[in-house]
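Board notes, transcribed. Complex of a protein with D-mannonic acid.
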Amino acid sequence: MPDAITVQPTTHPSGTRLSSGSLDSLPATIGRPAYDRAAVTPGIVHIGLGAFCRAHLATYTDDVLAAGDTQWGIVGVDPLSPAIRDALKPQDCLYTLLVREEGRDSLRVVGSFLDALVTADQLDEVLALMAAPATRIVTLTVTEKGYCQDAATGALDEAHPLIRADLDAPEAPRSVPGLLAEAIRRRRAAGVPPFTVLVCDNLAQNGIKVRGIVVRYAELRDPDLAAYIAAQVSFPCTMVDRITPATQDADRATVEAALGCRDAWPVVSEPFKQWVIEDRFPLGRPAWEKAGAILVEDVHPFELMKLRCLNGAHSLLAYLSVIAGIETIADAMADPQLPAVVRRLWAEDLIPTLPPVPGTDIPAYTAALEARFRNPGIRHRTIQISSDGSQKLPPRLLEPARELFAAGKAPAVIPLAVAAWMRFLLEVDEKGTAYAVADPMAAALTGIARANRQDAAALAAALFAVEDIFAPELVAEPAFRAAVVERLDSLMTVGVAATLSALLGTP
Ligand code: CS2
């Protein structure tokens, strides 16, 4: 289904707020819920109210509601901040999706969120909702770090402060594993079968991994509950994709001009979206395939392709760009050298690690990715993508590097990406502008960087020793260590442009 039709700026008087009451007075060109929202009942609790789920899950579900299946409304829960709830509630949880591509914006108001809650101040309500028989699926977009995992192994980080706190007070959980376990326990106690847990974050084998994390947490809490979760709860794996940069004030102004009323928190995305889901939903699911989702037996090949080719390239571009002072991915793709480096990453390091992907020509997929990265309507900030490198590098780039070495090959470009991340930890770009490193391990990582800022070999060695990030087999490879140190030394002494010239063999 198309997201909406092209819209022209409107001259409608401004000042009112988007809400159910203002839907009828929107310009005709703005897409809007093509169903009676009052007749929709909640069937999904979604945890993590960021922009991504509002551009992805919510639009697929909006299309299903429009197709007449009204039992799948979504209640959104933010585990941390009240900001998005407080923006959405006065708008009856309506918001605008602004889809941008060159020379063409389209807008649609999305209606699939029925309510919004925050665990920090509404925990009882959240748990009651998750335990309610009508809730048949709990979806999650809490980012990689939200699962309290050890990024190198994907296992529960048992020393995580939120996990320690939840094990002390398991009926008042604050962590995501704690929340899921407590909600499932309440359902079981009430004789209600468990919901399906649908993880929509960029983790390798996301359902399998989060199942392992939740079962381990439950083992520490109550082995009987752990056995129940292991036996009874379905955690299908998914591959999710839609580039969704953080909303800027300029986007709010664009949306207000088009709508003729104010939307406090619209979402911006590219036109492309993809969702591949393992079809294991014991209590049923929305017919997301009606909105273009692909339901499969095994997501793994799709997920590896996306996590490595899209997200891996994003991370490479982000670290090189932040240190070179390049602000967005589209700007990076206008650089004379960066696109060639990304193409080599795909062709030499990543595509050789991928299994066949059903119905997909992988070189055509990466060519399409290049066009998506170039979309000039999307101002996707490299500093945004640089966040949480400790969580993102292992599945995107370190695991393929490990696989290449295991197959007797050396990666051509991954050491550069790792070196760029190490250089990025110095918190100042080549033009002398300071930036902050956002990462759950930021204090430790920037401390290491500060202590070794003059010496590439010492900096790399100290970071290789961080076992939460680097698998021992990978850092035991002398060729990997040497290649990273060489690139890091080059980035620290001659900078990004000269390092890329040397890699590409350009003058
Ligand atoms: C990005 C992703 O911020 C990041 O790390 O690589 O958010 C990326 O834009 C999405 O996964 C695209 O589907």
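Confidence is low (pLDDT under 50) at residues 1-14. DSSP finds 21 helices and eleven strands in the chain.
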